[in-house]
Amino acid sequence: MINLMLEVFTVQIGNILRQGRTMFKFTCILVSTVMLGLPVSATPQAYDFVYASSKIEFTYDFNGDAVIGGFPKFDGDLVIDFADMRRSSVRVSIDTASSQGGFIFATSALRGPKILNAGKFPKINFRSVGAKVVNGVARITGEITVRDVTRPITLTARFFQLEGQNPESRDELAMQITGKINRHEFGASGYPDMVGNTLNIRIVTKIKRRQ
């Protein structure tokens, strides 16, 4: 499942996204627009990922140290209805051959047959299958497929407004998604004496309303 938290607060987020030389500052915005009284679209809106301003990273334990890896190449589709989150949907497909483990040995092992086996399983896929809002929180049920094994997953997402943007605008936003998976549930069980079970995932992406 995806757990999309809708919160009422405004806070400056500095350096939340760094992709190459690109850096952004965001203001966290309320997704539950009905409570703020902001104008919202009556229909779901398609958004495009701005890939040059996006990143998918994960943190894992390696011999007691936290190591950050990532997936530089991905694509997807996103539909958001801020008035009724039940009509929102998301699909993401990750290129496993682009995976990076944080250092050379880890990258080679990550792409190899004992973990992702990128040669045989070139994609990690996520798709949402339903959504509902409970007490101001939208829960979007989704499935993730790794190594041809599909499991439910729960992620937490927040939307951010780019600094200096019109507070009522929803044309360009940033989105941060976090969650975790147990790699052994997908058969990615290599190097258990060195690598921890859990991958903590963070996706930071800029999105733009499709014209």
Question: How far apart are the first and last residues' alpha carbons, in Å?
Answer: 29 Å
Which fold name is given in CATH as the topology?
A: Lipocalin
* Structural class designation: mainly beta
CATH architecture: Beta Barrel
Range of helix content: under 10%
Which percent range describes the beta-strand content? Answer: over 45%
Shape: globular
Largest sheet: 13 strands, antiparallel
Q: How many separate domains?
A: 1
Q: H/E order of the elements?
A: EEEHEEEEHEEEEEE
Gyration radius (Cα, Å) is: 18 Å
Mean pLDDT level = 81
> Unreliable stretches, pLDDT < 50, 5 or more residues?
1-38
Number of helices: 2
For this entry, give a set of tags.
211 residues; mainly beta; Lipocalin; 13-stranded antiparallel beta sheet; 2 helices; globular
What's this model, at a glance?
With 211 residues, the chain is mainly β. The chain has helices at 33-36, 104-111; strands at residues 2-5, 12-19, 22-28, 45-62, 65-70, 74-80, 89-95, 123-134, 137-146, 149-153, 155-162, 172-182, 198-209.
How would you describe this structure to a colleague?
By secondary structure, this protein is mainly beta. The chain has one domain: Lipid/polyisoprenoid-binding, YceI-like (Lipocalin, Beta Barrel). Helix content is 6%, strand content 55%. The protein contains two helices and 13 strands, in the order E-E-E-H-E-E-E-E-H-E-E-E-E-E-E. Strands 1, 2, 3, 4, 5, 6, 7, 8, 9, 10, 11, 12 and 13 form a 13-stranded antiparallel sheet that branches. The longest helix is centred in the middle third of the chain and has 8 residues, at 104-111. The two termini are 29 Å apart.
